[in-house]
Amino acid sequence: MTGHIQCMPRPSLKEQIVDAAVETLHRKGFNGSSVQDITEAAQAPKGSFYNHFESKEDLAVAALQRYWERGETSREMLRDTQYPPLERLNRYLDHLAGSARKAEFRKGCLIGNMSTEMAGENRPVRARLAALFGAWTEAIESCVREAQADDSVRRDLDPASIAVFLLNSWEGALLRTKVDRNDSALEVFRRATSALLSP
Amino acid sequence: MTGHIQCMPRPSLKEQIVDAAVETLHRKGFNGSSVQDITEAAQAPKGSFYNHFESKEDLAVAALQRYWERGETSREMLRDTQYPPLERLNRYLDHLAGSARKAEFRKGCLIGNMSTEMAGENRPVRARLAALFGAWTEAIESCVREAQADDSVRRDLDPASIAVFLLNSWEGALLRTKVDRNDSALEVFRRATSALLSP
User: How many contacts (CB atoms, under 8 Å) link A and B?
Assistant: First the structure.
């Protein structure tokens, strides 16, 4: 019975560790966060970590997935048919900019941060990042396709390329805000991408 | 005399450490590289490190500066008046893409990597990053201004905004190549920015 309990740890502790990892990894990066930093933030005993995760990399994959799931509510804006598609896209981008501003441009995007820090070295993290970028691109692409159909976005670029470009350029703009600590890169992003998308 | 020698270490050893730091930090990141990793790569005694640098952060600032200086030869392409300005810009971007390809998309840009990893935490590194982004933007902006003057780039966006947007979007595209391990993000970047710049 004891063995059974050890193999099936309380789910809530695992959840706490993943939540703490999202926050800690976002703020301090993967190599800047120790397992102890994360278990302390989770108010979990350090020894409990390896009951739940094989490695810090394994936790990083789970934290990326959790971060992505938390973004689902905002991605719903892209599908909110009470607004026309281009307005949905703009509302979504405004929302992302608002989150960056709320964090005083200190944290950037966990997905972008992990891409520069980890993708060169760690295969499971890179695979998760690729999957999330793919899904994120699709969410934007659907909205762009609808906006092309109602003539509010140019049609001489395919919606997948536009979505990839918007997303990558967004990551680049957010990277720059971490250096500048203001939203000027985000404003330039919005001005330039509006000019690009204009039919 | 011995004290004098200790206070004025051989410049070549310091140079070796900075060169090794550029390579090591670029490949493994700031928190992923120890002082020992760097001194070993420099074939320098670990103990010599603190004769030359106050801290690893201090070395990171020097490494960023060295990385920037190494890019001067390629930035000269932006001023090479044997080509018209838009062609200069395209040749420069091709050159950057070639460097990323040569590194098999594993390393990204040291300036971009340090921005996501360090800018949130370390003031001197952030100040250096801001200065380098500023100087890099200016180099691109001059070329864009000339291209607007000869009617090869649209004029309804100011050259500074175009330069900031190109640079940040480039960083975002390069970030994505680290995840994808191929140049599709760079191709999308070129296609979308050509569409944007077109008068």
Answer: 162
